């Protein structure tokens, strides 16, 4: 069976959920071989093995943290060459984070193949891997394949379930020779973002968003309370962000983040095309809006016509009561 390289996104050995989702997709195409780089890379092996990695290639060189993406591209190229030399490589799967997308594009160029970004599904037919993308503000779904070389595919978070699939997860050291460009751009400092204790917006299984209808930064506390009752991330429309009510890092949409959670709850958001572009692939969409004609109701699974200041606190209380 062909092998599929999976680039591991981890923090000091703790594997992030989108990587486990990639392993689910990788198993549909071939045998997943994970590539974990940087401090703690070897510690990822047990988790990766539990989710289907037959092999884990690791390298803990300091260069991965000290410089921008090129050392990681060098390492993935080395992994592509090693796996291709030993057998056949069907695809390279990479999470759709900003950094990983840059790595994917550079890697595809290096290995003379093509890159497909922001896939929401990956499967294989008799000609090889086929990626599904959601395009034109999620109005259309397209199927795409790379016609030359090994496809490099970035996959959006929440595109596949995390599945337990125990495999060997044999750890092997990856031998990497860094290119002349690897040390070109040095990282001089990192400022950790203040933690809210909530999940990362693009990775969250549930997102609760507020728009202009929330009518002030102080009122976002009711959106946060609903989010916290569900263990959700908080999102915001551009109108709410432009008004200074919520940080830009939480903006959902064309010029914000693209989310694809199991459940998206839009509160006081009209459903403009630019907002839809960032949330339309959510599995279940709920909206609370006092205007029954609001366009958001065209795409919801469940809609509540009502004042969010009445509906949202009641919903939060009900969820808390049911959770006990
Ligand atoms: P509005 O459209 O004003 O809607 C507010 C809604 O709240 C209304 O439907 C109203 O009925 C409802 N409401 C009011 N009070 C209550 C209440 N008490 N209870 C219940 N409902 C209530 N927008 C984004 O969101 N993300 C983007 O990334 C983005 N990128 C853009 C890029 C470009 C190039 C452009 C031109 C625009 C972009 N926009 C983006 C802006 C987008 O066009 C809309 O202006 C924006 O999404 C509107 O935000 P909103 O739905 O919160 O506000």
Automatic annotation (TrEMBL):
Keyword Zinc tagged: no
UniProt GO BP: fatty acid beta-oxidation using acyl-CoA dehydrogenase
Highest rank taxon of the organism: Bacteria
Keyword entries, A-Z: Electron transport, FAD, Flavoprotein, Transport
Cofactor note: Binds 1 FAD per dimer.
Positions of FAD binding: 212, 237-238, 251-255, 268-275, 289
Cofactor(s) named in the record: FAD
InterPro entries assigned: DHS-like_NAD/FAD-binding_dom, ETF_a/b_N, ETF_a/FixB, ETF_asu_C, ETF_asu_C_CS, Rossmann-like_a/b/a_fold
Matches recorded under SUPFAM superfamilies: Adenine nucleotide alpha hydrolases-like (SSF52402), DHS-like NAD/FAD-binding domain (SSF52467)
The Electron transfer flavoprotein alpha/beta-subunit N-terminal domain, residue ranges: 4-187
Any single Pfam family the record assigns to this protein: ETF_alpha
Keyword presence, Cell inner membrane: no
Molecular functions (GO terms): electron transfer activity; flavin adenine dinucleotide binding
PROSITE patterns: ETF_ALPHA
Subunit composition and interactions: Heterodimer of an alpha and a beta subunit.
Family: Belongs to the ETF alpha-subunit/FixB family.
Role description: The electron transfer flavoprotein serves as a specific electron acceptor for other dehydrogenases. It transfers the electrons to the main respiratory chain via ETF-ubiquinone oxidoreductase (ETF dehydrogenase).
Name of the protein in its database record: Electron transfer flavoprotein subunit alpha
Organism: Streptomyces dioscori
Upper classification of the organism: Bacteria, Bacillati, Actinomycetota, Actinomycetes, Kitasatosporales
